[in-house]
Structure formats: structure tokens, C-alpha cells
Design goal:
By secondary structure, this protein is mainly beta. The chain has ten helices and 58 strands. Among the domains are: 144 residues, Immunoglobulin-like, CATH 2.60.40; 104 residues, C2 domain (Immunoglobulin-like, Sandwich); 194 residues, no CATH class; 41 residues, no CATH class.
Length: 909
């Protein structure tokens, strides 16, 4: 969806400020609010465009002179004041940012006729006059709704023209106040609604006060531009003007030179019509026509024109009147007619079979405009949250949503979703009800279109006034009932302008996550990303009331899998049943990627409790090409992070599950251990130590890699499900194994044993090949002595040590009694309570990549991360041509090379 603009407002931090606004700057922590500074958003002329710029200045020198000897600086003030002073400093008066004037709270309607004769004489950015290249005599009409400082715009354009490239709002001098891109090259727009209706839709948000004044005074023009910049093919412009009939408009018409008219005389002419009806006892029609070009040069005042409304197919005239124009103008003329019609003629009108014509009396065929009466020119859809008023009538918690719109052919497109419908009630009875009548008449039955998947999608081709009239008046409801004629859920179809989030392909149903919520609670949300990579959202809720403080948040996952990493973004905080907004900052690349290819969870939370009330699963948000991230070739999962500074926090995806960095796990193959490092999974296959059973028998247990000796003792232990655990892997009692360490894998020079008596793991060094296995071991080490010291070998046999041996044993027991931790590699040296240490591994020495801490008998270990600082230290050693002791570092040279390569890639991208 292309809704970027070239911006007539200012962005300061995370806030958007309108032109003319002033504020006290808040720079956040640690600086805070600068009370002696003032900032304002000032207009700046850049060629023909007016843009906003932030200007800040000090007001300290403007402080008034104190009237006392000891003035006091009050909190939140810049100037010192004296006791008894009344009122704040005059220089601290700030223009309110979000306060609306009373007349801005209600919607105001405007229309514009864009023809060659109504256009301003504009110049491009290079001050060259734009030549009139509108050879096909393209005509357009616009509808504008001003609501809460936002101007929603809609355009309907001749079929012979492609979609315009951009829209400009200008003043009478041709200065560009705001500009919007409407389509990419070739007139393409990624919008289901705009393509189906042939309309051009969008919104100018946060219109500045000075521009609101121009709009109110009818001094603003809309300019449609075909082509780009100074290479524009042609432009059409028209003045935004108020018309009282717009408030009740039901149908519209675009009037162009009629077939057979004088093409030379009719060049640059056109018109539009505002059509409204009454479906009371005596049906009637009212038509307001805005036009130009059907007068001769000699016709100056009180000129008659013919207005004809006929059924196109039958050539049957329904209304024919002659209306007099007091003073014909070259650009804009306005007339109106009213007439009584039949119900059958109203049906022809609502189905697009009526032709409206206006012509000169003096030259009836040469000077004539005509066009079919079509669907209302305003970009508008109708949505509803379907919920139950009574929980007793809806014990299963059924909820739903619906959205309708009218396409270019005048057909009503409807989409209805119903969730948690009981199978016995599928399909339900789905009807459209007009609640404006006493009997609440059923106007359409959509039951036959309901599918077993919870959706009803279809088209009502032959629209009648009984549907169209209550639809536009807000009196049309969707009712979902059971076969027993009991109503389950219902909802009112509410008209909404199409722009930003509501221009996305479809809304998403918000489902209840809290079982204590009433069955009347429900909601829907629209999401979209614009061409500037801002996320737009529009939320509609029912049943929560208007007082509850709510929070809207989004969690973005690469996929739904255990342990999947997610990016969390708080979008907004609000009260009430609706929220419409967008992010100030552009989306990061990883956020865009997950919205495009991943799965996101949108949550409505209670601000006070933090509990999730409603949630929607978002599986696909259309992303403009300019926002899509770069995906490396041969990569199953796109890059989640932009900077090498966070590469060490990337999780690893393996066998449909995500794992945290620096963790290890057993794969689906029980003999394979894996670990996650720098976002990459590395696995190693285990070799089982030789095992001989002195008693019992050797058994291969399902789910275990190595066989185990099973005897009566072990069997009784195993039946209780107790196991030994080391580095994330569990072992059955009686199992022999080689320990697993990151990043080296299985240590084949150490053999461990899960003791079935106390479920303790005991390890020993293998002496078969000391040169290969144990570069850090001391000779004379007695592996059979449980209190043997691996640093200082005993000088006498154990049996002759006597009291010295007992002292060491008592000292070790005392440390354990005081909350110390056992040392599985050297029981003689337990770790004292509160101590930090690196584990010692026979084949590696002191393992400095892991730091452990003993707290009250419990050992917790944390692995140090491999980062660029460590890699630089290793590189310095290598440059000095010294030998790198791998046990001193937590990185390998291969990992460092990959990290440097990754950093260069991010720098170039």
C-alpha cells in the first residue's frame, strides 16, 4: 500500500508534531526535560513544497526580572519567581498538541471536480509551466471527509486513464502543502479494495491548523499527477468545496463529453453528480450536479440547461427537467433537481442502470455531458464485530467478524468469519437485518454461502434499495442463529473510510484469551505496512467498555516452534473500543522479515493486570518491495539481525525447535549431542566407552545411546525415573559415557559413570594415551584414590598417610557441610560456598570458557560468549606468531573469521 508523503510535519524523538506547534523538549534519560528550551515545528519552503522543520531555542534570557530579593525556581519552570506570584511565566505557554476545536470533532464533507477547465495553472519544481497533455479529456471527481484532524480522500477517474502517480494538495498560489504517492510505475497499487472499486483512496493525517483553515475557507486544491516530477504527462486539479448534499449521498456519477458531442468545444469539460434517495411511502430522488463546459461564448446569464435521467437499457426517460443557470462560469456550476420515482426505478438506480445527462438547450447534441449513476464515489467499507449480548445464549464462546464493500460493478462483496461454532450448528443461519423497521425485516439470507471452514464469502449482484439504504445509514445488522431459531451472535455493519490499515486485504479476528471475559467481548484488527516501512493498525472492539485501560502489543516470530525467538513491540496504549495509529519509527529489517515470512501474535492486554484479553494470529502482512530485507542464498531462515553486535544472541533452529545460544541438547538421535554458538548448530556423535558387566547383564535401553549393566539395584532405581544429569543430557544409573563440552564436543579422554547408589557422576582420566589426551595432567596421579590431588601428587602410599589423610578428608567434609559444592573431577577439593571458579577438565586443563558459582550446595555455570574482543586478542597472539592456548579462549579461529566476514557484509549493506 503506497501512502508515503513528503512530510508537512515534524518528528521529534518518538512524537509527531504538526506545523505551528510548540513544545518543551524532553530528551529522555539521562538529560530529561529542558525547561529553558522551546522547540517549534516551522514551515520551510523547498521549491514549490512546504515541509516542516524543528527549530529549538533558549528562553532563559526572556525571563522577567524577579520582584523580590530571593526568587525561587519552582519545579517544571525555567524562570525564578517570587512568593505570591500568580500564574505561570508567559513564555511557558505552549500550543496544545492534540486538542481539537469543537467543530473538528464532527465530520465535514467536501467534493471536487477535476477537469481541464477547473484546473489551476501550475508550474513544476523547475518553474516551467506544465503543458496540457490531457488529449483524452480525462475527468475525475473527488470526495473528502474531514474527521478529527484527518482528511480522508477518494477519487473516481475516467476509465480511459491509468491510475495517477501522485496526489498533491496545494494552495491558490500552487504551493504544495502535502503530497502522496498513489501508485508505482504502470499505475499498479497493491490494494484489493482500490483495484475492485477503481477508486483512489488514502488519508492526510494530522492536518496542520493553518491548512485546516484553508480547507474550511475553500481555498485548497487537489491535484492528480500522471508521470513524475518535471516529466509529468498531465495533471488535473480541482477546488475542494462544501456541498450539503454530501451528507446523504447514496450514489454518484462522473459526467464526460457524451458520444456524438463536439469534441473541440467539449475539450476540458466534465461534471459530477451527488445522488440521494428517499425510500419512504413515496420514493423520491435528489440530484446535485457540478459541471462546466456546456455553454456557448455568447451565453452570459439566465441560461437554461436540460437534465435527463433515463434507464440506459430501455431508453426510458425517468426524469427530464430544464433548469436555469443564473450566471454560467467556465470552471464550476451547480444545479439540483428532485423528482418522485417508483420502487422499480429505484432498483434500476441502485443497480447502475440509470444514465444521467446534462446538455445545452441551444446546442443539445454538441454540448452534452453524460454518465451512469454508479456506486458512491467515497472509499468506504462496512465492518462488524460479531458477539453475543448474553453469555447464556452463547456458552461455547462463539465470536466472529465481517466486512463488506461495493465494487465497480455495483455488487456487494461480503466476507463473514465465525469462530468456535459447534459442529452440530454448522452451517448456522446467517441473515442481514434492517433494524430501522418495526419488525426488523430480513433483507438477505446468506446461509447457503456459508462454508464448513467457518467462512461465508460471496457477492450480492442485484442490489436493491432495501439493502443499500440501511447499509449507508448504519441500520444493517448481521445475525447468526442456530437451527432452533436461537440467536448466537450479531453485529452492526459500521461504515469506515478506506485508508492506511483498512486498505489491507483483510482484517484479523481477535479471539478471547481470558475465559473469564463475557461472551460479548470480541474484536478485529487491520494491519498494513506503507512504502516508508511504517506499520499501521486499526482496532475495533466490543464488550470491554470505555473505561478500561488497554495496551496493544505485537510479538513477531520467525515461525511457531518451541523456544522460537520473538521481537516484542508495544504499539500503543488506549481506552475505549477503537484505536487507529501507526509507528513513528520505521520497522527494522528483522521486523519486516517476520511480518512478511513469519508468524506474529497481536495482543490486547489490560494495563493494570498485564493479562492478555484478546489475541490474533497474524500470518502474512503485505510488504512493499522497498521494505523487504536481504535474504542470503542457501539460507532456510532469513537474517534476523542487522548488526554483528547482536550476533551472539541469535538462537539456533534445529529439528523444528529453537535453542538459546551457548546451550547443548540431545538430538533425535540419542548418540548425537549438539550445541548452539553464534546462531549456528554444531553436532558431535558419541562413542560409547567399553563396558563389561561383572554381574547382571548388559541391556540396550530405548532412547539411550550406550548400553547399561542392569542388576537388581539399578532396576529398582530406574523404575523411579531417577537419572544423572550432566551438561543438559541425562544418563541412566549404571551408564558409562564420555562427557560433552562446548565447543569441543565429546571428550574421549575422560570417562564418566552414573553411580546407581547415589546418582552422582564420577569421572576419571583415561591413561591409555597421555600424549594425545592429557597435556595438562601430572604424572603419578592415582585415579583410584578418591582424595588424590591432581596438582600435588602424594609422596607416600595412601595406606601410610595416617593423620594427614584424615585432615584432608575432614576439611573437605567441612566445606560441604557449610554449603559447599562437590567437585566431580577432584573430590578432595570441593568448592566453598560463594566461590567462583572455572571447571578443570583433564584433557583441557582449566576450562576458562565456563565460570561456575557455588551457592548453598548448588552449582550454577555460565558460559562466556564469543565476541569480537576475544577474537582481537587471539588475532594479536597470532600476529606475534605465538602459540594460542585454546583453553584460554572461548572462540575458535574459524568462528572469528566468520564473525569478521559477517561484520563486513553488514557494513556494506
Amino acid at each position: 500500500i503506497l501512502i508515503d508523503n513528503f512530510v508537512s510535519e515534524c518528528v521529534f524523538g518518538k512524537e509527531i508534531r504538526e506545523l505551528g506547534s510548540k513544545w518543551i523538549p524532553d530528551l529522555g534519560q539521562p538529560i530529561g526535560i529542558l525547561y529553558c528550551m522551546r522547540c517549534e515545528c516551522v514551515p520551510f519552503q523547498k521549491k514549490r513544497r512546504i515541509v516542516g522543520r524543528v527549530q529549538c531555542y533558549s528562553i532563559k534570557e526572556k525571563c522577567p526580572v524577579p520582584t523580590c530579593d530571593e526568587p525561587v525556581l519552582m519545579p517544571g519552570r525555567c524562570c525564578k519567581t517570587c512568593p505570591g506570584d500568580v500564574g505561570p511565566d508567559t513564555v511557558q505557554d505552549i500550543i496544545p498538541q492534540n486538542v481539537m476545536e469543537e467543530d473538528e470533532k464532527t465530520s465535514k464533507h467536501y467534493a471536487a471536480l477535476l477537469t481541464g477547465r477547473s484546473s489551476l495553472v501550475l508550474k513544476n519544481e523547475f518553474t516551467k509551466p506544465l503543458s496540457d497533455l490531457n488529449k483524452s479529456n480525462v475527468v475525475a471527481t473527488g470526495r473528502f471527509t474531514f474527521h478529527k484532524k484527518n482528511l480522508f480522500y477518494s477519487f473516481f477517474i475516467s476509465e480511459k486513464a491509468a491510475r495517477p502517480h501522485s496526489l498533491q494538495f496545494v494552495d491558490a498560489q500552487g504551493n504544495i502543502l502535502e503530497e502522496f504517492t498513489l501508485s508505482t510505475s504502470g499505475g499498479f497499487v497493491n490494494s484489493v479494495y482500490q483495484n475492485a472499486s477503481r477508486k483512489v483512496c488514502g488519508v492526510w493525517r494530522r492536518m496542520a491548523k493553518d491548512y485546516r483553515k484553508l480547507l474550511k475557507q475553500e481555498k485548497m486544491y487537489a491535484v492528480l499527477v500522471w508521470g513524475v516530477k518535471d516529466q509529468s504527462e498531465f495533471t488535473l486539479s480541482g477546488q475542494l468545496m462544501k456541498y450539503s448534499a454530501l451528507g446523504t449521498e447514496l450514489m454518484s456519477s462522473l459526467l464526460e463529453p457524451a458520444p456524438g458531442s463536439d469534441s473541440a468545444s467539449m475539450m476540458g469539460t466534465g461534471g459530477t453528480a451527488i445522488v440521494s434517495t428517499s425510500t419512504s411511502v413515496t420514493p423520491s430522488i435528489n440530484v446535485v450536479i457540478i459541471f462546466n463546459g456546456i455553454f456557448t461564448p455568447t451565453e452570459k446569464e439566465d441560461i437554461p440547461v436540460n437534465v435527463t435521467l433515463s434507464i440506459d437499457e430501455k431508453k426510458q426517460i425517468v426524469v427530464e427537467e430544464t433548469v436555469r443557470v443564473a450566471k454560467p462560469a467556465s470552471d464550476i456550476n451547480v444545479i439540483s433537481i428532485s423528482a418522485i420515482v417508483t420502487q422499480a426505478q429505484l432498483r434500476y438506480l441502485t443497480r447502475g442502470h440509470m444514465l444521467l445527462s446534462i446538455s445545452s438547450v441551444s446546442k443539445k447534441e454538441d454540448l452534452k455531458l453524460s454518465g451512469n449513476v454508479i456506486t458512491k464515489a467515497t472509499c468506504e467499507l462496512f465492518q462488524s464485530v460479531l458477539s453475543s449480548a448474553s453469555p447464556n445464549a452463547n456458552p461455547e464462546g462463539v465470536s466472529g467478524m465481517a466486512w463488506f464493500y461495493i465494487n465497480n460493478a455495483g455488487s456487494l462483496i461480503y466476507n463473514i468469519q465465525i469462530d468456535k461454532l459447534p459442529p452440530k450448528e454448522n452451517p448456522p443461519i446467517v441473515t442481514l437485518i434492517d433494524v430501522s423497521t418495526k419488525r426488523k425485516a430480513e433483507v438477505e439470507d446468506l446461509t447457503s454461502y456459508f462454508q464448513g471452514d467457518g467462512w461465508a464469502n460471496g457477492t450480492i449482484d442485484k442490489l436493491s434499495p432495501k439493502v443499500l439504504d440501511p447499509l449507508y445509514k448504519g441500520d444493517l445488522f448481521i445475525n447468526v442463529a442456530m437451527r432452533g431459531d436461537n440467536n448466537i451472535i450479531r453485529g452492526k455493519l459500521v461504515p469506515k473510510p478506506v485508508a492506511d490499515a483498512r486498505d489491507s486485504p483483510a482484517p484479523i479476528l481477535l479471539k478471547r484469551e481470558n475465559s473469564s471475559l463475557s461472551a460479548s467481548v470480541g474484536g478485529l484488527v487491520w494491519l498494513s505496512v506503507d512504502n516508508d516501512c511504517h506499520l499501521h493498525y486499526d482496532v475495533s472492539l466490543s464488550g470491554l467498555g470505555g473505561d478500561r485501560k488497554l495496551e496493544l502489543g505485537l510479538e513477531m516470530y520467525p515461525m511457531i516452534a518451541p523456544g522460537a525467538p520473538f521481537i516484542s513491540r508495544q504499539l500503543d496504549q488506549f481506552q475505549g473500543n477503537s484505536l487507529e495509529g501507526s509507528t513513528v519509527e520505521i520497522l527494522a529489517r528483522e521486523e519486516v522479515n517476520r511480518l512478511d515470512n513469519g508468524v506474529s501474535l497481536l495482543k490486547i492486554k489490560d494495563q493494570n493486570t498485564g493479562g492478555v484479553l484478546l489475541m490474533a494470529t497474524v500470518t502474512k502482512v503485505p510488504i512493499p518491495p522497498a521494505c523487504k530485507p536481504i535474504i542470503q542464498q542457501n539460507s532456510l531462515i532469513p537474517l534476523f539481525y542487522d548488526s554483528s553486535d547482536v550476533i551472539t544472541t541469535v538462537k539456533c533452529y534445529f529439528e523444528e525447535k529453537f535453542y538459546d545460544p551457548e546451550t547443548s541438547w540431545v538430538s533425535k538421535n540419542p548418540c548425537q549431542m549438539c550445541f548452539c554458538q553464534n546462531g549456528k548448530t554444531t553436532c558431535d556423535m558419541m562413542t560409547c566407552p567399553e563396558t563389561s558387566c561383572t554381574e547382571g547383564k548388559m541391556v540396550q535401553v530405548d532412547g539411550e545411546c550406550c548400553p547399561v549393566c542392569m542388576n537388581n539395584t539399578i532396576s529398582s532405581r530406574d523404575t523411579n525415573g531417577q537419572k544423572c544429569i550432566l551438561n543438559g543430557k541425562s544418563y541412566l544409573p549404571g551408564t558409562k559415557f564420555h562427557p560433552f563440552f562446548i565447543p569441543f564436543g565429546f571428550d574421549l579422554c575422560t570417562e564418566c559413570y552414573c553411580d546407581p547408589m547415589d546418582l552422582e557422576i564420577r569421572c576419571r582420566r583415561l591413561n591409555e594415551n597421555e600424549k594425545k589426551c592429557c597435556k595438562n595432567c601430572k604424572k603419578g596421579f592415582d585415579i583410584n584414590d578418591p582424595l588424590s590431588d591432581d596438582i600435588d601428587a602424594p609422596s607416600v602410599p595412601v595406606k601410610n598417610q595416617g593423620s594427614e589423610y584424615a585432615k584432608k578428608k575432614d576439611f573437605a567434609a567441612k566445606i560441604l557441610a557449610e554449603g559447599g559444592c562437590k567437585n566431580s573431577f577432584n573430590p578432595k577439593k570441593p568448592f566453598a560456598n560463594g566461590s567462583e571458579y572455572h571447571p578443570f577438565i583433564d584433557s583441557l586443563g582449566e576450562y576458562k570458557c565456563v565460570t561456575c558459582k557455588c551457592e548453598k550446595g548448588t552449582q550454577t555455570c555460565k558460559r562466556q560468549l564469543c565476541d569480537m574482543t576475544t577474537c582481537r586478542k587471539m588475532l594479536d597472539i597470532k600476529k606475534r606468531r605465538e602459540k594460542i592456548n585454546q583453553s584460554d579462549f572461548c572462540c575458535t579461529l574459524k568462528q572469528c573469521r566468520k564473525m569478521r566476514h559477517k561484520k563486513k557484509q553488514n557494513a556494506t549493506s
